[in-house]
Design a protein that fits this description.
Blueprint (H helix, E strand, L loop, with lengths): L2 H16 L10 E7 L2 E10 L2 E5 L3 H13 L9 E7 L2 E7 L10 H13 L4 E2 L16
Parallel strand pairs: 3-6
Antiparallel strand pairs: 1-2, 1-4, 2-3, 4-5
Length: 140
């Protein structure tokens, strides 16, 4: 396991999160589930009486998350990352498969993790996925 490479990847993730300048970076939570060839990231921002969901840029965030996951030995790979930014620092917590209840629904788990970081504040989601409005549709 290359600690320098892991540190670089973690810093790269922070830089990608910092590119969203519409809302403050402080307090940002990136929660991502990762496995072979797939990543499911979610970004949350504290906004007073609620938590705002921000659409991740999958093209930018997926590669460093997958690279970070692949840096681990196959028998000790984590399944989830909780990456929290506080001020100018970040903390990354890795959750391993054996720590995850197999019967817990992924979205329920995500909501529980968000509540652990932000309390019982409601999560506000954007009205639609940004690409849906401009996507072409085809009849089959």
């Amino acid at each position: 396991m290359g600690n320098d490479r892991i540190e670089r990847l973690l810093n790269e993730i922070g830089h990608i999160l910092a590119e969203d300048t519409e809302y403050p970076l402080d307090g940002t939570l990136l929660y991502a589930q990762v496995d072979t060839n797939w990543v499911a990231p979610s970004i949350f921002k504290p906004r007073g009486n609620h938590v705002l969901y921000r659409w991740p840029d999958l093209d930018r965030i997926s590669v460093p998350l997958l690279d970070l996951w692949e840096e681990q030995e196959p028998e000790r790979r984590w399944a989830e990352i909780e990456y929290v930014i506080r001020g100018a620092k970040f903390a990354a917590t890795f959750n391993y498969p054996e720590e995850i209840a197999p019967d817990e629904e992924p979205l329920d788990r995500r909501d529980r993790i968000v509540a652990r970081h932000f309390g019982d504040k409601p999560i506000v989601y954007p009205p639609s996925f940004p690409d849906y409005d401009s996507a072409e549709t085809f009849e089959v």
